[in-house]
Specification:
There is one protein chain. The N and C termini lie far apart (42 Å). The chain is built from 7 helices and no strands. The protein has 102 residues and is mostly helical. Helix 2 crosses helix 3. It has 2 domains: 56 residues; 34 residues, no CATH class. The protein is globular, with a radius of gyration of 16 Å.
Length: 102
């Protein structure tokens, strides 16, 4: 049984967050940010190349909670539960409510 896109991305997120929360990486991020960036990028080079913006969000410590909503919609499209337009509308309404209608 193959893993879903969501499962694969979430495993990478967990792996990257675990690495970046080690004592060594915490120290490097604070005192040697360039070395931190180099070591983190070499830790998951394929992911870094294929998903550069997501990778940057993760290592910066940004809130990535919305990522699961996007991944859920991708899974729903892949399984035929939603059309691409339905997913776009749902995400558009959710983002509007979160960021515009505060």
């Amino acid at each position: 049984m193959s893993k879903s896109f969501k499962e694969i991305i979430n495993q990478y997120v967990t792996l990257i967050q675990t690495k970046m929360n080690t004592d060594e990486m915490t120290f490097l991020k604070k005192f040697h940010p360039e070395e931190y960036n180099q070591k983190m990028a070499s830790f998951v080079p394929t992911f870094t190349e294929e998903y550069p913006q997501l990778y940057k969000m993760i290592i910066s410590g940004a809130d990535i909670s919305i990522l699961n909503l996007f991944l859920d919609n991708i899974d729903a499209i892949d399984s035929g539960e939603k059309t691409l337009n339905e997913a776009r509308n749902d995400l558009g309404h959710m983002l509007h409510d979160k960021y515009v209608n505060k």
